[in-house]
Amino acid sequence: xxxxxxxxxxxxxxxxxxxxxxxxxxxxxxxxxxxxxxxxxxxxxxxxxxxxxxxxxxxxxxxxxxxxxxxxxxxxxxxxxxxxxxxxxxxxxxxxxxxxxxxxxxxxxxxxxxxxxxxxxxxxxxxxxxxxxxxxxxxxxxxxxxxxxxxxxxxxxxxxxxxxxxxxxxxxxxxxxxxxxxxxxxxxxxxxxxxxxxxx
Length: 200
Known about the structure:
Layout: H1 2-9, E1 24-29, E2 40-46, H2 56-71, E3 76-77, E4 84-105, E5 108-116, E6 123-131, E7 134-155, E8 161-170, H3 175-190
Parallel strand pairs: 2-3, 2-4
Antiparallel strand pairs: 1-8, 4-7, 5-6, 7-8
Protein name: DUF4136 domain-containing protein
Signal peptide: 1-23
Organism: Lutibacter agarilyticus
């Protein structure tokens, strides 16, 4: 179980992603734990250097999003002596995607001979093909950032990790859009929590 958590925490999927790509979600939890027994939680802070990678506004958005999700699962926030402790971890990778565009100019149909090789020797054969033209290929590069967000939930008494969720997505540089995408992505991540939301 510990090895799985360590691998999930270091998950970095090397994909060419655009701003419209949906968040990639992975999770795991201790199946021997009754999650309905927990009634309170506290935040244990941001791990390592994660706190330096995110501004105060987005920190507030993330914490408020988690509070909303947990409240709907009958979990109340407490500063001290809570049943659960939640820690947050963020990794940001800067990546570059390259797109190639090819234009074909002045191409025409032609007739000629071609040479083909094979297991039993070569041969000549007539063939139709395109000729008389040329092509140009141009390349476009785009820089983007990929964020890997890890949520660890510990049993406060046993100090054991009981649930972990990992979300990976291209970071939207538009702050006003993050006001909507952060709650949405936290909601998707918390759908993997063993206790479902209360029905309204």
